[in-house]
């Protein structure tokens, strides 16, 4: 199978936060095994294959000037559309039509840079709480793990591990029973609603064990959002987003991004440390899972009723005919 023909390439990935990329900066990233240069002119950000069409040098080592990017090797200058406009070795010569960089779709919104290396079917998802004055939003963790991106998403959607992997916070001692929850499916994924669990300390504001109500939404192929509410189902106190970049089929970059409505009560450093330590507890489990790639054939793994979200996620990957990163 040619990886580039795979439907995973036609999806949006949250490759970087907007503030990682300053004006006139170029940086190297990786997505689905491809080297990607993200670069910004005066304002607009662009995502290209990080490989010069001349002799393959990394354009991310080059220099931005105005709305053009110059290769670090022989100085070819590419305009905003990726077309070469100048060969410094031949100033009077019109560059060839073929002297173009492979460009990707790149859309910046809600503080995020979304990239699709193939053909997207619809725009990337919005993050309505970012910019809402009721919440403070911040990146709480960024890390690279030797684990498959879909396995990471499944872990985020999974509640039955709380008592074992997060016993001091998200778990609740002996009461590890997972009540039935319901799924709403839509074209881009699904929402698991009315997920109820008792937690020792669901967030930094919680005073002792309490019941929390979760909604989990898959908003892109490897991005999910969790709304955490009190048992009364009022507005979410925490909106936790997990953006996973499949670096390749077996390694992932994770960014956890949080909007929370109790910024007056706790320090930003404490919020970061709390969420980071929970995520770090998941890492050894994620890196231990075999097969590394996500099995889509039901015969390969045995499920329990609490796995409804995971089963729905696998159905979704099958429906999209994703071949990258699965087995
Ligand atoms: S490799 Fe880029 S200009 Fe030669
Ligand atoms: Fe976890």
TL;DR?
This protein is an alpha+beta fold and 327 residues long. It contains four helices and 17 strands.
**Number of separate structural domains:** 2
Low-pLDDT sequence parts? none
Overall 3D geometry?
Answer: globular
Strand order of the largest sheet: 11-17-16-15-14-13-12
Q: How far apart are the termini?
A: 13 Å
Protein name: Phenylpropionate dioxygenase, large terminal subunit
Pfam families: Rieske, VanA_C
Domain Rieske: 12-115
Keywords: 2Fe-2S, Dioxygenase, Iron, Iron-sulfur, Metal-binding, Oxidoreductase
Name a few traits of the molecule.
Naphthalene 1,2-dioxygenase Alpha Subunit, Chain A, domain 1; globular; 7-stranded antiparallel sheet; 6-stranded antiparallel sheet; single chain; 33% strand; Rieske Iron-sulfur Protein; alpha+beta; 327 residues; 4 helices; binds fe (ii) ion; Rieske_2Fe-2S; binds FE2/S2 (inorganic) cluster; Phenylpropionate dioxygenase, large terminal subunit; metal ion binding
Give the secondary structure arrangement, pairings included:
Layout (H helix, E strand, L loop, with lengths): L12 E5 L8 E6 L2 E7 L4 E5 L13 E3 L2 E3 L6 E2 L5 E3 L16 E7 L2 E5 L19 E10 L3 H9 L4 H4 L16 E5 L2 E11 L10 E11 L2 E8 L7 E9 L5 E9 L7 H21 L19 H12 L8
Antiparallel strand pairs: 1-10, 2-3, 3-4, 4-9, 5-6, 6-7, 7-8, 9-10, 11-17, 12-13, 13-14, 14-15, 15-16, 16-17
Bound molecules: FE2/S2 (inorganic) cluster (FES) and fe (ii) ion.
FE2/S2 (inorganic) cluster binds next to loops.
């Amino acid at each position: 199978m040619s990886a580039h023909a795979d439907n995973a390439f036609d999806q949006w990935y949250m490759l970087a936060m907007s503030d990682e990329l300053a004006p006139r900066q170029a940086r190297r990233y990786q997505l689905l095994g491809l080297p990607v240069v993200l670069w910004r002119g005066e304002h607009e950000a662009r995502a290209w294959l990080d490989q010069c069409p001349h002799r393959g040098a990394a354009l991310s080592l080059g220099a931005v000037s105005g709305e053009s990017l110059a290769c670090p090797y022989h100085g070819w200058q590419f305009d905003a559309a990726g077309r070469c406009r100048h060969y410094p070795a031949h100033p009077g010569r019109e560059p060839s039509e073929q002297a173009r960089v492979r460009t990707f779709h790149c859309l910046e919104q809600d503080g995020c840079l979304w990239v699709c290396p193939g053909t997207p079917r619809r725009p990337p998802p919005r993050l309505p709480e970012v910019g809402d004055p009721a919440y403070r939003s911040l990146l709480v963790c960024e890390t690279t793990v030797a684990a498959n991106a879909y396995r990471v998403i499944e872990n985020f959607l999974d509640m039955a591990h709380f008592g074992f992997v997060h016993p001091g916070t998200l778990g609740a001692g002996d009461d590890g029973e997972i009540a039935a929850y319901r799924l709403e499916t839509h074209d881009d994924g699904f929402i698991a609603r009315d997920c109820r669990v008792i937690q020792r300390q669901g967030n930094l504001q919680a005073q002792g064990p309490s019941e929390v109500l979760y909604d989990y939404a898959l908003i892109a192929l490897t991005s999910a959002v969790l709304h955490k509410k009190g048992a009364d189902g009022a507005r979410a106190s925490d909106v936790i987003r997990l953006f996973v970049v499949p670096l390749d089929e077996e390694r992932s970059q994770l960014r956890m991004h949080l909007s929370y409505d109790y910024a007056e009560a706790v320090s930003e450093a404490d919020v970061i440390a709390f969420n980071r330590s929970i995520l770090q507890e998941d890492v050894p489990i994620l890196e231990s899972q075999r097969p590394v790639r996500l099995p889509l054939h039901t015969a390969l793994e045995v499920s329990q009723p609490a796995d409804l979200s995971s089963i729905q996620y696998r159905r979704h990957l099958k429906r999209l005919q994703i071949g990258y990163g699965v087995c």
